[in-house]
Amino acid sequence: MTEYLDKIIKDLEEEINEVFYMETDVLVACEKAVEFTLKKISELKNYVLNKGFENQKEEIHFFKHIKPQFIAKLIYYNSVYKIESKKPRETKTIKKYFRGELEKLKQYFDHNLEFYKYYRTNNTFLDEKIFVRGKYNIKLNVYTHYFDSDHSFSTSHDYKVAKIIANDLIQVYLEDQLHNIEQKKVLDNSTLNWTASKTALTELIYALSAQGVFDNGNADIKVIAKTFERTFNIDLGDFYHTFMELKARKINQTKFLDSLRESIMKKIDEQDERYVLISIR
C-alpha cells in the first residue's frame, strides 16, 4: 500500500505543479487543481475500499496521515479560489481583506486549540477513538458533516487534520500576498536604470514578444517597448529601426541573448562549485 500511496500523491503534486506553471490565471489553475484532486480522492477511495487495511494500525495511519494530505489540497485550492474571486481591487482594501482572512484562520485555531496541540505534538492516546471508522465521541468536538459523510471512507477527525494542514498553507498564501503588496510599494518608489545598450534591450523585447510571454502573445510590440522604457528609465527611440539593423547582421543576430545564456550558465556553474566546496569542508 505504501508504494501506491506515495505514487498517487506524487502524481497529484506533479499535475498541480504543471497546471500552475502553464496557467497564468490563478482562478483557472485552482479550478483545475480541485478537479485533479477530486479524481485522485475518488481513485484513493476505490483502492482503500477494495483492498482494505491489514490491521487497525494501518487504518489509523491512513486516516491520520495519508487521506488528510489529499483533502487538505482540496480545501486549500478551493479556499484560494474563493479568496481570489472575492478579492477587492484597491490596495488598501485588499490588505484589509487579506488580514480579515488571516483572522478567520486564527479564530479557527483558537476554537480548535486542544486538537491542534494533540496533532502537532504527535500524541496517539486518542487515535483509536478518532481515526478508526465507525467510532466517534461527540464530546471530542466532532464536525456535524461527519454524520452525513460516507463512514466507509471517513473517521470523526481525519477532516480536522486536513483542515489544519490546509489552514497552514492558506496562511502562507495570504502572508505572501501581503508581502507582495508591500514589495510592490517598494518597487513603485524605486527606479531601475537600463545601463546596457539600447540595441540589447530591443533584442530582448523582440525575443519576449516572439515567445508570446505577455497577454498570451496578444500584446502589441509598441506597448511592450513603452512598458520597458517606463520601467527602466530609457528612451529606445526608433526601436523598429534598431530591430531592422539586428536582422541585417551577417553573424550573431542574437548577440545579447547568447550572452545572457552564457552568463546564467556561468552563474549556475559557480553555484555548483561553491556547493561542492562547502560540502567538502
Automatic annotation (TrEMBL):
The cross-references to InterPro entries, in alphabetical order and at most eight, read:
Tet_reg_excision_RteC (IPR018534)
Q: In terms of domain of life, where is this protein from?
A: Bacteria
Q: What is this protein called?
A: RteC protein
Source organism: Parapedobacter defluvii
